């Protein structure tokens, strides 16, 4: 038996990889980039580029031979030797993302990798040899130059200058083994069609051509997929295109774009999903993005066996059962300061408006009443602003208000660094008795319910201006109403309410309606385009960091660990119930298997423990099984 195995191993066939250049190795067609360089400043640039595209199409539909199309395009391009360095530099920066992250594949299999292209060696070679590809394995055309360095033509003897060139080259190569072709174009498929390749993989990371997709043995949305299918992957553990991302509730397009460009398989929905729909949909999903409407309940999480991470594209995370998420080993991220600035700007605007009685004055004007008077109108300059809750928003407001010439006092239950010339108050009373404007920026924890009620209003100065842009329940609303009506509070702005309508169709009911000098807004403090875009950028960044490196910084339910990038090591990510002794057991498995630990990080919350272990490259795959089998393991994954 063992003899058979040995013979079989010796007979193992060689595998050759034939890879296209334009729109496969690089994201672009090199001639498009060349046109921008060689025709720069040319009065006919746009006309010529259009003409080049037309000729390319004619070449593709067969109404022009490849050679004719090449001649005509080169004439329109008028390239010169001096354009090449710039072209090469641009192409180097435009190598396909999945090629960049799989450099190791090229280095390891250099002897068996061929670049076969109808393009030109002069720009292909400098780009691909950086990946370890051998110059002799590059099959491409070559330019002919005149003495002034202008391109006059190409090597007409080269089969790649004519139709069916790739097939002809492959025949001449006569590769002794299995041949896999990866490319985006029909000429790549032709190699397989001619019986010269075992498989053709349609590469769709940069372009998708209908004519090629249905001819392909496999569609490869990235090189990761190709390597995974052929068990050649080293740089990544699992092809990103197989990781399903579900983005609900119309998250900002920038987020969708970010997730797609990372190579994930992204599905989007404009609305939220109800619990039953989500329970069904979540089964194959690894990454979930929601806003505030979607309820991620324990039942949803029970159906989410593949789920790794949830991104809340908003500030609040009450809609997610965080405890259940932790128990399932699902990390949750939100966007805690993406709309900070928006809230601060509104607060500044409102305090100025209130100090000038603008709400009432504007309302009267709409009724045709001209009420010109300076009575009860003040500048904010020199006034004392009392900020309660000196977190992200409070601290930023402090800086902007000082720039307007206000004197800032703040009160926070935590020790907070005073920014600029702000003065910290030791007690709430100290702040309330001095401030001309009191503004609420505490978080919405339950114990902050009715944080400001009659007793606190009693301490405030007469004629104080009061703002609440934090959470509705932190202020006793009937008490606020009474103090407005008594004149103790000269004006107020309220953006948040103990009960807020579920939809725009529901009427807004509140004791604050109809009060003088009272600005009411429908919880829009953080609602700006900029904030939405910031959120769209921030949350995917956090989720991808977690997937790619295991970093949990800013996670709302996982222990926060910021990790160094992984170099020349495997990273083992172990999430477990927080019971004693797990780290010791992990390390025992590693020690028993003679594995060298290069770095290790552990952090726990009450619920879970999070251990990251970086180990050197060689290890026995059984180790993974043993680590998975450790009791109390919630989730385990390996990064390569
Ligand atoms: P944060 O968590 O950075 O800051 C809150 C601060 O309040 C912390 O420094 C905390 O120590 C302090 N604090 C909490 N309870 C306190 C107490 N009882 N006494 C003294 N200090 C206390 O939060 P961030 O990002 O600054 O947000 C502040 C508030 O604004 C939150 O309630 C948030 O929900 C709300 N918000 C409202 C928006 C809107 O559209 N109106 C948009 C964004 C946030």
Descriptive key words:
Rossmann fold, 640 residues, binds 1,4-dihydronicotinamide adenine dinucleotide, 26 helices, seven-stranded parallel β-sheet, alpha/beta, six-stranded parallel β-sheet, disordered N terminus
Account of the protein in words:
By secondary structure, this protein is of the alpha/beta class. It folds into four domains: 13-229, 3-Layer(aba) Sandwich (Rossmann fold); 243-333, 3-Layer(aba) Sandwich (Rossmann fold), CATH 3.40.50.720; 340-527, Rossmann fold; 559-639, Alpha-Beta Plaits, CATH 3.30.70. Helix content is 36%, strand content 18%. The strands form five sheets. It has a seven-stranded parallel beta sheet, with helices on both faces. Strands 3-2-1-6-7-8 form a six-stranded parallel beta sheet, with helices on both faces. Helix 4 runs antiparallel to helix 5 (66-77) and helix 14 (253-261) runs parallel beside helix 24 (529-549). Residues 1-10 have low confidence and may be disordered. The structure holds 1,4-dihydronicotinamide adenine dinucleotide (NAI). 1,4-dihydronicotinamide adenine dinucleotide binds at residues 315, 336, 339-340, 343, 389-394, 411-414, 416, 441-444, 448, 451, 469-471, 495-496, 523, 525-526.
